[in-house]
Specification:
Elements: H1 9-34, H2 44-55, H3 62-76
Helix pairs in contact: 1-2, 1-3
Bound molecules: flavin-adenine dinucleotide.
Length: 77
């Protein structure tokens, strides 16, 4: 959609919000599955957990994505 110039900012915000929140939930399940080992730096799942967490912050935090989405809802009304 971006290549075809059809991607709007609120659609991009929805995609960023859903995927980064889902990534965190999924990796959290992975850490839980590994038990205490999931909290240790030596294991890949620990790094995945830290990396997933920052997805909700950088490139526009989840709260800002919600603001963009909310603005589009009110503009459409
Ligand atoms: C690893 C990493 C790489 C980065 N790379 C880049 C890069 O390449 N280019 C670039 O430009 N930036 C980059 N950033 C910056 C990144 O985009 C910012 O960290 C992000 O936009 C959040 O801004 P902030 O850190 O100043 O947090 P703040 O804006 O201070 O936010 C702190 C908290 O307050 C919340 N908050 C802020 N405003 C509101 C509001 N109006 N309503 C509700 N909650 C709010 C936020 O959601 C967050 O939880 C990078 C950051 C990191 C961690």
């Amino acid at each position: 959609m971006h290549n075809q110039k059809e991607l709007t900012s609120d659609m991009a915000a929805k995609a960023k919000l859903i995927t980064s929140e889902l990534e965190c939930r999924m990796v959290d399940v992975g850490v839980q599955l590994h038990g205490g080992a999931g909290y240790m730096d030596e294991y890949e799942i620990c790094r995945l957990y830290a990396n997933a967490r920052v997805s909700r912050i950088y490139a526009g935090s989840s709260e800002i994505m919600k603001e963009i989405i909310a603005r589009s809802v009110f503009e459409a009304a």
